[in-house]
Specification:
Blueprint (H helix, E strand, L loop, with lengths): L19 H24 L13 H27 L2 H26 L6 H26 L4 H29 L2
Amino acid sequence: MNSVIPTIADPAAPESAPAPRMLGLRTALIILALIETWFGFSDAPVLFGDMSHIGSGIGGGLIKAHLAAHPVLAVAAIVFAAMGHVRHAIIALGTIIIMSWLNDMPSVVAHGLEFRSVFSAVETTAKVIAFPLIAACAIAYAAHNEHLGRATFLVAVPTLFNVVLLVGFAIGVMIYGF
């Protein structure tokens, strides 16, 4: 008597041949993670120089933790997305957003929210209020393995916002100089 034992697939394991939709999500996540890796490595030299301007205490610790974790999490997101672990890549990118928010908190606590102009009001509201909520939603979607496309879009918003700010700054410098 030959009995067949049914096997249960692991829902966290990647498929052997990803669906075209997952391939698109993986590509988008790799591009986002590459941008975040560039941002992370551009700030990393601060860790190896004089950090007396950062300060001490919990605020300084949060800033140093962000500087150290940002490139590591970004590279992890690249590896996860390349291996097909879309959920893990989204969680890594969402964690970068949360760490960036924690990085800004010592300044917010010391100086308050900055609303001097319309632009600074939009930037402050986005970075202090909207982005951590967006990251929490994306992490929750990924943790429950639901709406992965929506979660990818959510983690893309802060990265694309930072790219737009950088391009706008570069254009302003080209037009007006320092």
